[in-house]
Amino acid sequence: MRTAPRLGTFNGFGRTMLGKTKPDAAGACFATRWFTMLMLPIRPLGRYYIKEGETVSASAGRGASTSTTEYVFLGEADLRASEVIQTYLFFWIVIPLVVAGPVTVFGLNSDAYSREHPLLFLVLLFGIPIGCMIALAVAVGLKEKFLSSPRVPEWAGSGPPRG
To answer: Residue 39: pLDDT above 70?
Structure first.
């Protein structure tokens, strides 16, 4: 690799790293660079062996904030169809089902709840998707911690590319 690929998003549009594998003993992992729209992955742009640096958050004024994560790019790898499919399934199917699914099911019977118990209705309306998202985050964290094994880079020559 001669130069690090460009990353950055604005309001969910741009390029970002998704689908990171479990870090190896050196703290590096594989990740796929994606073009995103509204934070949804549209097209994979490349797969890289990276080391993640620190994330710096800053206030951008008027209630807005920004965060930047530093990456050290150690090498480039071939895209893996299984990781691309997993990313598409997670962002386009699992997350919408977790957020919209319970609200839709709850909304089918909302007339009776909203009239008889308006406070309970609001708590459930917002609590169900938030609870489901927390459960999803915990499940993803447990999967990454216990089920996935780190991938070992296989270099074509005598070692990682220099430069």
So the answer is: yes
CB 25 within 8 A of CB 35: no
Please state, in angstroms and rounded to a whole number, the distance separating the CA atoms of residues 111 and 55: 45
Render 41-64 in DSSP notation, one character per residue: EEEEEEEEEEEEEEEEEEEEETTE
Q: Provide the edge-to-edge strand list for the sheet that holds 13-18.
A: 8-10, 13-18, 28-37, 40-61, 64-77
What gap in Å lies between CA 32 and CA 25, rounded to an integer? 20
Selection from 2-6, 10-14, 152-156 with the highest mean pLDDT: 10-14
Maximal CA-CA distance, the chain = 72
Distance CA 31, CA 29 (A): 7
Report residue 142 as tokens.
């447990």
Strands (E), the chain: 8-10, 13-18, 28-37, 40-61, 64-77
Give me the pLDDT at residue 163, please.
Answer: 47
